[in-house]
Amino acid sequence: MNRLFQFFLVGSVLVMGSCADDTEELTPIILDETPYVMYYGELPPPTIADDNPLTEQGVKLGKMLFYDTKMSNDGTMSCGSCHRQKHAFSDTNTLSIGVRGLPGKRQAMAIVNMAWNGNEFFWDGRAHLLRDQSILPIQDELEMDETLDNVVSKLSAELVYKKQFIRAFGSSEITSYKISLALEQFMNSLVSHNSKYDQYLRGDLTLSLSEERGRKLFFTEYNEFFPDDSGADCAHCHSPSNFENNKYLNNGLFTDAEITDNGREKVTGSVNDIGKMKVTTLRNIAVSFPYMHDGRFQTLEEVVDHYNSGIKGSGTLDPTLRNTMRTGLRLDATDKSDLVSFLKTLTDDDFLTNPDFSDPNQ
Question: For the whole model, what pTM was predicted?
Answer without folding.
Answer: 0.91
